[in-house]
C-alpha cells in the first residue's frame, strides 16, 4: 500500500485545503491540515535537500512530511531572500509533481471504473493521499512562481535601468542572468506539468471519455474553488511580465494562453477568465506602447485555439467590455489604446464573431478610427427600459441555471448513493431467498434504467442467479430481463427495433464469463413467449445488412431464441441456407462469425433424449452430404487450416458439433475434411524438407571459374529442377519476365571467389528464414490436425453412445409398431405395416442399412448369443443388446484397419514420443490431449496408451497441458475406472504440482471423482488435506468445500482420520501451525460422541509409541497428537479413557506443548459441561491437578537428566585433555 501516514503525534494526516491567505495555515484547525512547526533556516535547508533525494527515488508522496518546512520558504525567514534554496526547492517540486501526476493517471481509471472497487477502503485512502499531495504541490509551486516572477521582473528592470544610465547595451550581472535564465526554464516546466494535470482524461466504466478527470480526486467530484483560483492566478501573474510585449516573448505568451485554454474548456471558466483579461488590459503597460499594431492577447488566443474552441473567451471578453464605464478610463494610468487594438485585431481575425456581438461595443465607438473612449451615458428612457429588461432576462437565466445546478447536484448525490447500494443489493441477490430477492432485483433494474455507474456490471452478475434451482428465483430473474430489454412502446415497429437494440447492446458488452448466463435468461424469455416473431425478422435483417460484431451478435440472438423451440427454428431453415448461399458472407471473418453460424446449425439437430420415450418416435433432423450447409462447413475448415489469423480451433469444434448433430453421414464429412487437412500438412512438411535440402546444397556448393559462363553445382541444379517440378504440382509457377539486353552492352565483369562466398552466406540466411516459416506453417497445421483428431474421437463416442442408441431404440419401437399393426389389420395388403408408416414407392432402392437388416448381415449379423438363444430366453433385453453393439463399435469398429482414427492415432503417438528438438512443446501438448480423447473410445486402446498418458501428465513442462490432462484423467476414470485405478497415485501426485492452476484443477477433479465414488479413497487423501492451507485462496476454499461434502457421506472422515493424522504429523514439510489449521477443520466434522471417544482412545495409545528404540522422543509427533486430542469434543467417557490411559502418555508431560494442549482440552470441557454436575467437576479438577503435578515432576526430572548429561560431557572433555597432555 502506498505510504500515506507519518508519525505526527500518532495521528493520521488531515485533509489539505488550499487557503485564501497564507497565514490561514498557521492557525490551528481540528478539521484540516495546518502548519505546526517553526523551523530555522538550517532545518529548512536540510529538509529541502532530503526531499530532493526522496523525489529522485520516486517518493513523491513525501511532500506531506516536508510541507510544514517548505511553507516558510514563501516568507522572509532571514536576512536576504534565500533564492538559492528556493531554486533547489522548485526543481524538486517539479520532479515530485511529475511523479504525482503519473500516479494519478494510473489511479483515475480505478476510481472511475467499477463502483465497488472504487469505494473500497484501500482506494479511498489512495484517493485522499493523492489529493492531499497534489494540492500541496500546486499550492507551493504557484506561490513560489509568484515570488520568482516578481524577482525576475525586478532584476530585468534594474539591469535595463543601469544599462541606459551607462549609455551602453544593458547587460545583466552574471548571477542575475543565471537566475533569470534558470527561472525561464523552470516556469516552462511548471506550466507544462500543470497543463498536463488539468488536461487528464479517462474512460469510465460505461465507455464514456471524461475530461477534466483531475476533479475525481475530490469526493464528490467537484473541484475546490481555491484550487481553481491559484492555478488561474499563476497564469495572470505570468501575463504581467513586460517581456511579453516584445517579439521574443510571443512564444511564451502562446504557452500561457494554451494553459488558459485547458482551464476554460475543461472547467468552464470562460466568463471569469475573460473578465480578468479585460481587467489586466487596463494596467499592463506593454499593451499600450506605440510600437504595438496588433493586440498580443488576440494573436495568442487565436494561436492557442483549435477549431474555434476559444471563441467563447472572446465573447466573454466582449461581455466584460460592455460593462466598462467612463470612470474606468478617468485615471491617468489607464489607456484606451489596448482596447482599441483589441477591437481592431478582433475585427481582423474574427469579423463574424465581432459582428454578432457588435452591440457590446457600438455605444462606446467614437469618430476616431484608431481609438475609442467610453463616455456615453444611458440617459434615454427607452434605452433604460431595454437595459432593465435585459437585466431581468439575465436574472431569470441565472435562476434557471442555479435551478439546473441544484438539480444536477441532487441527481449526482442520488447517483452516488445508488452506486453504493448496488454492491449490497447484489450480495443479497446472490445469498438471499426467493421472497427476499424481488426488491433487490428491482433496485438493480431501475439503476440500470437510469444508467447508474456500475449498474451494467451488476445486471450481468445478476443473471448468474438464473442457475439456482429455485423456480421462483428463475421467474424473478426472467421478469427482470423483460423489464430491461423489452421496449414498452405502443408502436409495435418501434418496440421491436428498440428491443433488438437493447439485446444487441447487452450481448456486445458481455464478457465470456457472463455470456452463458445471459443466453440462458434470453432463452427462458423466449420459452415464456416474451420475444415475438417480428424480433426474429429484425435480427435477420441485421445479419444480412451489417458486418462485424453487430452481425455476430444478431446471429447469436437469433439462434438463442430459436433454441427455445427447435421446430420454430426449422421453419426458418432457409435463413441458414441463405447465409451459406451468399458468396461474400464470410469474407474478412476471423472465425467468430463462422463459429456462431456452425453453433446455430448444430442446434437444428442436437442430441436426442434417450430417456424420453415420447421423443424416440420423432425422425431426427439430418442434412444430406451434398447439402449446401454441409459443403460450406467443410470448405471453411479446409481453406482456413493454414491461416494463422483464423480462430480455427474454435471454428473446428463448432463445425464438428454441427456435422455430428445435423449431417446424415457425419463420418464421410469428417473423412473428407481429414483427407484435405492431412494433405496440406504433408505438403507443408515436404516443402520444409525441400527447403532444408536447398540450404544444404547451397551451403556445400563450390564455385569454378569458366571462360564464358558460370557452371552450377550438380546438386544445386538437381534441386532447382525438383523445385520447379514441385511448383508445377502446386500450380504456383511464377513466370519470369524476359529482360531485354542491349547488343552494345559492355561485357559483364567476373565475380571473384570472396564475393561469391559472401553471396552464398546471404542466400543461406534467406533460405533458413524461409525454412523456419515453412516449419512454423507445418507445426500450425499439425497442431490443428491433432485437435481435429481429438474432437472427432470425442464426438464419435457421443454419437455412438447417444445418437446411435436413440436411433436403434427408435428402430425397435418401429418394428414393434409394425408387428402390432400386422396383428390388428385385417387387410392382407396392409398387414405388417403400421397405420402411421410412411408410404414408399415400390421402385425405391433400399439403403445399405435396410439391406443388412433384411439379410441379417453386417451390423445386424446374428451374434453367438442370438444363434444359441433365438427366442431371447437368456434375459438380455433389447436395450442391453444395443448397448453391447455400441460398445463393440467403439472397441473394434472405430479402430479397424484403414479407418480414420486408426490412421491418425499413430501420428499422435509419434508426436507425443518425439523429442523436444523435433516438435515444440505446444504441439506435443496438443497431441497428448487429443490422444486422451481417443483413449475414451476403447478400453483396449486406453490400457495400451495409459503409461504414455501418465508419463506426459507427470513430466510435461506445460502447466496448461498438465491441467488439461488432469481433466481428461477424470473423464477416463469415469469411462474406465478399473484401468485408471492402477494409476491413481499419479492423479493424487498432481496435488503437489508447483503450478497453482494445476493444483486447483486437480482438487476439483479428485473431489468430483471421490464424492461420486468413482475412485477409491487412498491414503494420499492427506495431500488434499494439505491444500486447506495452500497459499492460493481458491485451492484452500475448494479443499474445505470438499471435506465439508465428504463429511456428509457417513463415517468416511472418521475412518480416514488416523491415517491423515499419521501422514501429516510425520511429514516435516507440514509446519506445526499448518497442521493445527488442517486438524482444526477436519476434527470439527467429528460430532458423534462415539466416534470422538474411539478416536481419543486411538490417539492416546498412539502417544505411547512416540519413543523409538533408542529412547528418543518424537516431540513433533507428541505435540500433534496432543493438539488433536484438544480439538475433539470430549464426554464423560472420554474423561475416563484419558484417566485410564494416563500412564501411556505421562512420560510426555515434560513437554510444555503437550501439557498445554491436554489441560486446555480438560478446561474447555469443564466450562462447557461441569457447571451443573458437581461430581464431574470434582473429577475434572482432580484429573487436572494430577496432570499438573506430573508435569512439574517430569520437568524437574528432565532438568536433572540434562544437567547430568552436561556434566558427563564436560568430564569426558576434561579426561581427553588430560590424556593428550600426558602424551
Task: Write out the strand line-up for the largest beta sheet, numbering strands in chain order.
Answer: 1-2
Structural class: mainly alpha
Helix content: 55-70%
User: With helices defined by DSSP (H or I, 4 residues minimum), what is the helix count?
Assistant: 51
Quaternary structure type: single chain
Residue windows where pLDDT falls under 50 for at least 5 positions:
1-11, 164-172, 366-381, 705-713, 731-749, 827-837
Rg result = 44 Å
Strand content: under 5%
**Backbone shape:** globular
Tell me what you see in this structure.
Keywords: Cell cycle, Cell division, DNA condensation, Mitosis, Nucleus. It is found in: Nucleus. Residues 962-1109 form the Condensin complex subunit 1 C-terminal domain. With 1223 residues, the chain is mostly helical. 67% of the residues lie in helices and 0% in strands. It is built from 51 helices and 2 strands. β1 and β2 (209-210) form a beta hairpin. α15 (381-431) runs antiparallel to α16 (434-449), α19 crosses α21 and α47 runs parallel beside α50.
List keywords for this structure.
two-stranded antiparallel sheet; disordered N terminus; histone binding; cell division; DNA condensation; mainly alpha; 2 strands; 0% strand; nucleus; 1223 residues
